[in-house]
Amino acid sequence: MTTNIPFVSSATLNAKLDYPSLIAALKAAFAADWTVPVRHHHPIAIPGEPEQTLLLMPAWEGGKSVGVKLVTITPGNGARHLPAVQGIYLLLDGATGIPKVLMEGTTLTVRRTAAASALAASFCARQDAATHLMVGAGALSRPLIEAHRAARPIRKTLLWARKSEQAEAKAAELARAGIAVEVARDLEAAARTADIISSATLSSEPLIRGAWLKPGAHLDLVGAYTPELRESDDEAVKRATLFCDTRGGALKEGGDLVQPLKAGVIKESSVVADLIELCKGKHAGRKRDDEITLFKSVGTAIEDLAAAKLMLERM
Fold first, then answer.
1. pTM of the predicted structure, to 2 decimals
2. Residue 226: its pLDDT value, please?
C-alpha cells in the first residue's frame, strides 16, 4: 500500500468540480446500481460539553471504486471558534482496496449537495424558470445559486436571510464573483414571484408557506435534515408533487416529509419519485407547466462517490 496518498484541498475541489460536469456525473451515478449502506451514526461523549457525533457514509461500485466520508459534528466547537462540522473523504481502488486519494470533506459535500438540487430541478422545475429565490445565507447558499444557474436559465436571483447583514455580505461575495443578487426584505413577496425557491436553513418552524407558491413553482428543500427541523408547511406538501433524493433517507430524516407523514397529511406513496427513479427514466418529473413541485434533499453517499470519482479523473 502506498503511504503517499494525495490530498485534494477545498480550493482544488472548487476549481475542478464545475457544476455542469458534476450534475452530469450525479445523473449517471443515480442511474447506476451502486451499493449505498445506511449511514452510521455514533454518539461520542466529551466530558464537560455536548455529545459529539461521528458519521460514516460509505458507497461503492463493485470492483471499481469504494469511498467513505467521515464526518464529525462537535457542538462545542463554537466556543473554540471552529466549525461544528468537520469531514474528510477517502477514495479507494475497488479492485485492490488501495487508497487512492483523500479529499477535504466540507467542500465536497456542499458542491455535491448543490449539484443534486440542480439535477432535481432539471427534471422538476419549469424549463423557462428565470427567477430563483435563495432562503438562507449559509455555506450552501452560493453553491445552490451557482448550481441552479447551471441547470436553468436563471436571470434574477433573490436572497433572503433572517439577518439582513448576512444576506448583504453574501450578496457582496457573489457580486465579486460576477453574480448579481438582490437582497429580499420580504420573504413572502419574494416567494410569490419565484420560479425556483431553494431553502437551506436549520429552521425548526416552516419558513415557506404553500399559499405563497405560484403555479409552476419548484420548491428545493435542502435544510431541515432531521425529523425535528422543517422549512415548509403542510399546505406546501399538499399542493406540490413530491420528489426526494432517496426514499430511504428523506422519508426517515427530512422533517419536511417526516412531520406531515406522522400527522397523516401525506402518505409515503405521495412521494412520486426519487432521484434514482428520475435518472433511470422511471418517472419523467414535471408533467405540466402549472404544476407545483417539491424536492426534499437529505444527502446520500452516492453523491459523494460520484463527486470524488469525477475529481480523481481531473487530477
1. 0.94
2. 87
